[in-house]
Amino acid sequence: MKLATSLLCGVCGLVLTVPATATELSLRVRERGSGVAVADATAVLSSGDYAETDAQGRVRLEAGELPITVRILAPGYQPYSNTLHTGGHHDLFITRQAYDLDGLEVVEDRVAERISKVVLSSEELRHAPGSSGDPINVVHALPGVVTAHEGSGQMYMRGSSMDDNDTRINGIPVPYLYHFGGLRSTVNPMLVSDFNVFLGGFPVEYGDYLGGAIDVKLRAPRRDRLHQHYNLGTYDSSFLIEGPVFGSATDSFYIAGRRSYIDAVLSPERMTKLIEDDKDDREPDTILTVPRFYDAQLGWHRQLANGSVELMYMTAGDEMKMISNDRLETDPALAGKLGLEVGYHVVGINWQSQLADRWHQRTVVSYSEYQENIHFGTDPEGDSFYSDAKVRTVRAQPELHWQRTADSRYTVGAELQHHNYPIKLYTPELPAPDDYDHDYTDADLLAVNRTLSGYSAAPFAKYNRRFGDLTLGLGLRYTQMQLDGGFDDHGFSPRASLEYELTPATTLTASWGRYLQLARPIYLLDGIGNPGLRLTEAEHRVLGVHIDLNAQWSLQLEGYHKPMQRLVVSTDEGPPENYANRGSGSAYGGDLLIKRSGHDGRMGWLSYSYARTKRTNDLTGLRYDYEGDQPHTLNLVWTQPMSGNWERWRWGVRVQATSGRPYTPVIGREQETLDDGRTRYRPVYGDAFSKRLPDFYRVDLRIDRAFLFNTWRMNAYLDIHNVIGRANIIDYDYGARYERYDNPREVRGMSAMPFFGIEAIF
């Protein structure tokens, strides 16, 4: 009995001293807000055991008694801690320390020259206040840029209009960049990586324009997994889907689209009532089609062993129709139906590759078709005037780059284009840019139904060489253009630039160049215009300094002078002598940019521009301030995240102050009886552009909030334009019959206007 008891006690003692069975934990560490696996994160148990996650974010550990605390440590992420009460599999979601919806894109300097160039990253573009969530709208807050009027995308860049700027997306020219002249850009905001803006002095690889160059870069589609992005805004909605092609490690795609929906919310009748002016005795306008727009982008990208190739398709369209009675009693030819339908299709391929250790090539080939269908006014028989035109362009631009040494680089290339312009036109004679008092009712009627075709060839070469602290750039572009009907012109465009590194942080810059530009094709059309016109011409002369104040702050100061020759003016003759290269002009001033980059989420800039722009009609001797002449422009843009528990909130402010734009005043009126017996009133104008609107002031405020969920995230923003509620004077109304010529009514822009956006990213 004692032996049995002893054996039983021994067995019980062995059982009581056996350690507890280990509990296995299968952990997967993922990023909160996207669900993406986090590799190389360290999982630490309260028992002291630890291990790192693999490429799929997985790690296995053995725990002792439960519950047990697990901590996750990963570079760039907030420390994570959680107490687990059960074994087995657990998904753990950790949060970035400084959360940005898409991370920070690398900003690319696509050309070496720094003179008159401003580069903004995706982060700086995406969060800028006053942009209504559209990053390309930020260009209006840059130095040297003047907006034509409130709400407009038309801009003047160092004294040249928007039509004088070269606008490209991934190296492919696009017919227009903004819907309805400024409402939204024609590119999905989430695709924009950065843009390089040349205010002037741009190098030879850009096109033949007198103004500047806007070079927008769309990023390559992501290859890690399928991404989805949806956006709902104040007046439009959009989507973006991107990812690998069938799981490929080298091929990826994106498809994006956007559509306005104001026409789905407001009927034409309702919008007609909204725009009625009780103080106006004119017959009211009538909306027939509520303004609407769309755009879409489709892209395919393949990463090659020695480069990449991408295929792009872009399209956009705008439409609106109304009955306009604004000029019924003053210029009745403009009264009647007003319809606008414009759009474009662009397809292009961009191939770049490393040919050898020191040789690199880039080839861009594209086809674009721009269509413009406009109906306006009424002829004496009651029919509408119209312009139905297309511009079809086939373009190729091959470039070869040779990095001969670490300090010298050669570039050769050519821009080759073939144009086709089918035109159906019935219109009164059109005004030239300087014809501010053009009368359509008395103008000769013109009718055209033909196709204009032509070509341009522009070979170019560039040499960059560094001599110690001095960098020299030399370029030469030769342009040959020819169109049906007799237009044939050519010219050389030499360019030169110097950059001298005074100190490691300070660079002095200088550049000079000759620039050419084709006049509007309508001015060259045989039977309507003058095929004998020449290419217009300008010189860009720039001196500046660039200072890196520290790792975040930089200063750029430039002075410029831009004389212009052979500008197009109207004459009193009939075609083909109705237009002549007898205009000239000049633009001069200075631009200051103090900028902070966004390494810690705080970013912004202060810009100030002093600019004067003059035009002269050499036929009449008339010299006047150009319509883009606004001497003083100040912009302050700042945005940053909030602190503490508000770290997912972000605020930003933009302050804008601008001199008033010039206008030509009406100082009287004259009564006139038309051939059909109707009476109308004609204005008597004062000196051209001799008066200015009051100075323009505006403050915009933006608030962002990021919401993180386990596998998706959402961002909401409120962008309040003109938060101070100051309705600026944007024009003067002289009355339906110019009866208020001595006391015009002020036409004011918008007061405070909120814009919202909600983004969901999966």
From TrEMBL:
GO terms for molecular function: siderophore uptake transmembrane transporter activity. Residues 327-719 form the TonB-dependent receptor-like beta-barrel domain. Its main location: membrane. It is found in: Cell outer membrane. GO terms for biological process: siderophore transmembrane transport. SUPFAM superfamilies: Porins. GO terms for cellular component: cell outer membrane. The keyword Lipid biosynthesis does not apply. Coiled coil: none annotated. It is a multi-pass membrane protein. Gene3D superfamilies: TonB-dependent receptor, beta-barrel domain, TonB-dependent receptor, plug domain. Keywords: Cell outer membrane, Membrane, Receptor, Signal, TonB box, Transmembrane, Transmembrane beta strand, Transport. Pfam families: Plug (PF07715), TonB_dep_Rec_b-barrel (PF00593). Belongs to the TonB-dependent receptor family. Hemoglobin/haptoglobin binding protein subfamily. PANTHER family: HEMOGLOBIN AND HEMOGLOBIN-HAPTOGLOBIN-BINDING PROTEIN 1-RELATED, TONB-DEPENDENT OUTER MEMBRANE RECEPTOR. This is TonB-dependent receptor plug domain-containing protein. It comes from Alkalilimnicola ehrlichii. The lineage of its organism: Bacteria, Pseudomonadati, Pseudomonadota, Gammaproteobacteria, Chromatiales.
